[in-house]
Every structure is written in C-alpha cells, then in structure tokens.
Amino acid sequence: MSAAYSGSSPRSEPDSADAAWYRSFGAELVAQGLSPRELQRMVAETRAEAESAGIAPASLFGPAVLFARELASALKEDGAGSQATEHTPGPVVLRLHDVTVRRGRRTVLSNFTLTVRRGEIVAVVGSNGAGKSTLLQACAGLLRTSSGRVERTERFGYAPQLDALAPLLTVDEHLRLFGVLDGASQSRAVPTGHQILHRLGWRPNGSQITRTLSGGTQQKLNLALAQLASPELLLLDEPYQGLDALAYEDLWTLISAWRGSGAGVLLVTHLLRDIDFVDRVVELPTPDSSTGDSKTKDHAA
C-alpha cells in the first residue's frame, strides 16, 4: 500500500483544511482496501470535481471518512473495483527502436527498445550510471543517438532533473515564455500555470524572481512548465526532487490525472514506493565496463 497518506504535518497555507480533508479521504480509502490505482483514481476524480465546482471538498462531499466509505461501498456493490482501474492504452506517443548512446568510449545505452502509449505510466529504474537521465534526454531530442531510431509525438513536455529555469526571470515570465514556445497564448499560459501550481500545493507570486525560490518550489515550477500545453507525452526525471511529503502526494494525484486525460508518462525514479502507481517498470542495469553492453528488463508493476 502507498505511504502517501501516512501522518504528516498540514500545510501552513490557506488551503490546509482542504489538504487535511484529502489526507483523511485517502487514508480511509486505503483502510477500505482500495488498490493504489483505485486510490489514485478516486482522489484525482474527487479533487477535479471539487475544483470544477469551486467548492471546498468538505462543503461539497461532507465528512471525508464517510464519503470515502460510501465510495468504497459503491465500488464493491457494482463490481467496479479492480475493473474500474483497468484501462486500454491509446496510440503510441513514444517509440525507441534499438537506440544506442555512447559517450566517448563508453556505451551508456545499448540497443534499447521501448514503447509508451497514451494513458500509460512507465517508470525507469536503475543504479547510478545506468543511463536513466541519458535516456530521457534522448527521448526529448536533446541528445544525439549513436544508432537506432526515436519516434515521438510533437506534443511533449520534459522536466529534467537539473531544472532549466532562468534565475533572473520571474515565475510569470517563465510561464509566458514557455507558453509561447508551446504555441499557447500568454493570456492562457499564466492562469493555466498557476492552476497546475495550485494543485502542487503552491500559490505563487507571479512577480517573484526564480532564484529566490526554494529548491522544492523551483521543482514545482519546472513540473508546471512541462505540463503547460497539455502534452500527449510527459518525460519526468525524478520529479519529486526537493518536494515534501504533501507535495509528493499532490504530484502523484496530478500524474494520475494526466494519465486519466490521455497523456503517456515516462518517469525516472529510485523510490520503490513509486512502483505501486505505474503500469510498467523498465530496469536499466549498469553496462558492463568491458563490453559496454546492457540488457534491459521490462515488466509490469
């Protein structure tokens, strides 16, 4: 079971009552025996409904524990439990075929093949030096491959492990800049970015200079920029870096919502608890120092 709803201190923000409600809601769903995928789906749908209505969840749904028990009971009665979490992946948004990447004499990736479809979350794991970040850079077109083929949808977002933020630009300047690059209007980019940041537990001051933000807050902005244009593919390199426990919870709720909206997600992680929330896990072993070869393991979560 997920540890995302274990006890942690509430946010010192105006929405702390809402955050506490969602924690209680999630904890009761876990107690009722929902699987991690069911849990993520129910939390995402409940949050989306409350945000769409513009009403606090406690006012809209009543006590969190009672509402969670009602939902769990309804799932059991109509048999929707495990079936509701099954989904049919959509069209391919990323395909790598026999991709090899070399750095000098060292082979980082060797004959690597991978397919990611819309509505699918794929996790990449492996030891340091296995080529996880290199893989995402190749997927994003930032790194030339030595051989093989990379096919990718044009609508994609990339959040690197080392953020690509400009330290002297403000939050809203980043949103406007990335919005223009992604083909969105400036008038739409800023409110969309703020909405994503709200869902990550931060109410931004748009005029704040990026270098004055904490590492975790910069990572939230990094994630919002990647999702700004509602891409069909999201490439996330250890997206939880610098996030506290509540923000980590919010991140997975958001990723679940992205998957629910039809995006494919490829993320690098070293956290074992993340594996409960994904559809497939790809393991990148460290290449043999003498041959540079590696064999990739791909299995269902």
Task: Please give the structural blueprint.
Blueprint: H1 16-31, H2 36-53, H3 57-61, H4 64-78, H5 81-85, E1 92-103, E2 106-117, E3 121-126, H6 132-139, E4 147-152, E5 156-159, H7 171-181, H8 186-199, H9 215-226, E6 233-237, H10 245-260, E7 264-268, E8 280-284, E9 297-300
Parallel strand pairs: 3-7, 3-8, 5-6, 6-7
Antiparallel strand pairs: 1-2, 1-4, 8-9
User: What do the pLDDT scores average to?
Assistant: 81
User: Main beta sheet: strand number and arrangement?
Assistant: 6 strands, mixed
Provide a count of the helices.
Answer: 10
Which descriptor suits the 3D outline? globular
Question: What CATH architecture of the largest domain do you see?
Answer: 3-Layer(aba) Sandwich
- The strand order across the widest sheet is 5-6-7-3-8-9
Provide the succession of SSEs.
HHHHHEEEHEEHHHEHEEE
Q: According to CATH, what is the class of the largest domain?
A: Alpha Beta
What's the N-to-C terminus distance?
13 Å
Residue windows where pLDDT falls under 50 for at least 5 positions: 1-14, 80-85, 289-294
Provide keyphrases for this structure.
disordered N terminus; alpha/beta; 3-stranded antiparallel sheet; 20% strand; 301 residues; Rossmann fold
